[in-house]
Design brief:
Largest sheet: 5 strands, parallel
Order of helices and strands: HHHEHHEHHEEHEHEHE
Distance between the termini: 44 Å
Strand order of the largest sheet: 1-7-6-2-3
Helix content: 25-40%
Radius of gyration: 19 Å
Number of helices: 10
Length: about 250
């Protein structure tokens, strides 16, 4: 059986089960609990509560700028040019996006990965050559505890939407690291140093390829920065960062 046939069978099974699932578990908004049309959807009020990045924005990192600064680099990028080649953030981190992220990560609302991927995909530029979609990795013990890597779920949905070729194990986290909250920039970088590497069997696949690094939330940017550094040292081409929610005020 070919992979296309397998995907077709899985899709048919999913579509057949969906009405039963909706009957047993009526679709509800993961934020406020209001009724929705389908699993993983948001009610109209919560959709309206999402903050979508717009223009003007920094030419390098796409952080929002004032009208007078449109088309220029932000102060942070001028002082320290980033390693990445752009950021595609679906939303600005606020209470609504935070609750969606928590519903996926800890509430196991897997259908939200598709919603997040759809919003991220709308922010990604159209590439003639399909990039590699590589999720920010979790340590194997974190995956064992949670049961999944939410970034990998989003990357897989982006691939299904035709945004690139997913490489789930493109990066590996070989050492557990503590929470970076409360650390200064230098301490965060030191904590992450050596914790992430390219999977040995994937070096040849990554060399020379454009990469989209996928994550659910971009906070200080320390983890994504280490991932970008590792990818570029491994021979990757341009590396963009794609996330569902971006915390403003962090260093990207």
């Amino acid at each position: 059986m070919t992979s296309g046939t397998i995907h077709s069978v899985v899709r048919d099974l999913r579509d057949g089960v969906a009405p039963v699932l909706d009957f047993v578990y009526p679709p509800r908004c993961p934020v406020c609990g209001a009724a929705t049309l389908d699993q993983g959807g948001l009610c109209a009020q919560c959709w309206g509560g999402l903050e979508i990045p717009g223009e003007p924005a920094c030419a390098r990192c796409q952080a929002p700028l004032s009208g007078a600064e449109g088309g220029a680099d932000c102060q942070t990028c001028c002082q320290t040019p980033p390693l990445h080649d752009g950021i595609a953030a679906a939303t600005i981190y606020n209470d609504i996006s935070r609750q969606l992220v928590l519903a996926l990560k800890h509430g196991r609302r897997m259908a939200l990965a598709k919603v997040m991927a759809r919003l991220i995909g709308a922010r990604l530029p159209v590439d003639a050559d399909m990039p590699l979609l590589i999720p920010v990795p979790l340590h194997r013990w974190r995956i064992w505890k949670r049961g999944f890597n939410q970034a990998a779920l989003i990357a897989t949905e982006l691939a299904r939407a035709g945004k690139g070729e997913v490489l789930v194990d493109g990066l590996e986290r070989v050492r557990q690291t503590p929470s970076l909250g409360g650390m200064g920039a230098a301490e965060r970088d030191a904590t992450l140093s050596g914790a992430i590497r390219i999977g040995r069997r994937n070096r040849a696949r990554i060399a020379g390829r454009a990469v989209v690094l996928v994550d659910d939330v971009l906070t200080s940017g320390a983890t994504s920065r280490e991932c970008v550094r590792v990818l570029k040292e491994g021979g990757a081409g341009p590396v963009r960062i794609a996330c569902f929610a971006r915390v403003l005020g962090g260093r990207d």
